[in-house]
Design goal:
With 164 residues, this protein is of the alpha/beta class. The chain has a single domain (2-162), classed as 3-Layer(aba) Sandwich (Glutaredoxin), CATH 3.40.30. It has helices spanning 2-18, 62-66, 68-77, 94-103, 115-121, 151-162, and strands spanning 33-36, 41-43, 51-56, 84-89, 109-112, 129-133, 139-143. The protein has a 7-stranded mixed beta sheet. The chain starts with a helix and ends with a helix.
Length: 164
């Protein structure tokens, strides 16, 4: 237990040190609006009382594609929970995202043409970038592509945010 708390402290500290300057752990998520291929939209008000895992990316970014298989396992792990959302805002237009989905399995709900939202969250425009938001609408994890974190840190942050 102490080891887990220590690891959470270390990656939270690391995330704060390497975070994007404008957002820090514990700060409130800004207003945003995302559109999905199925016609749904998502705003800040829609995520209250949910844990949200954001992955900002684009389809021609090799580092953005390398962890999709592992991210899909996270979606599968939490599919029984209705209090967590996995959202992948992509920079490309709808038609490019539709083609990508035909050829690849990515179980996050993918938003298209999300450059405006990416510029708000991801000031440095480094990809991929990951953010976790708790049920109160506050950041609990920020990884803006510093290459300092690993997939295990993201998994641990999700578990901690959900209080598993």
């Amino acid at each position: 237990m102490f080891r887990n708390l220590f690891l959470i402290f270390v990656f939270t500290l690391t995330a704060n040190i390497f975070s994007q300057g404008s957002f820090k752990i514990g700060e409130t998520v800004p207003e945003f609006k995302l559109w999905f291929i199925d016609g749904d939209k998502l705003t800040k008000n829609d995520i209250l009382d949910k844990v949200v895992v954001f992955k900002f990316w684009f389809t021609s970014c090799l580092p953005c594609l390398l962890d999709i298989k592992e991210l899909n396992t996270l979606v599968d792990k939490y599919k029984h929970r209705d209090d967590i959302l996995f959202i992948a805002p992509a920079l490309e237009r709808r038609d490019i995202i539709k083609q990508f989905i035909k050829e690849n399995t990515f179980k996050f709900k993918i938003a298209y043409s999300a450059m405006d939202v990416s510029q708000i969250f991801n000031k440095k425009q480094v990809y991929p970038s990951y953010f976790i938001i708790d049920k109160k609408g506050e950041f609990t994890y920020i990884d803006n592509g510093t290459k300092q974190s690993e997939f295990k840190n993201l998994k641990a942050a999700i578990s901690q945010t959900l209080k598993e």
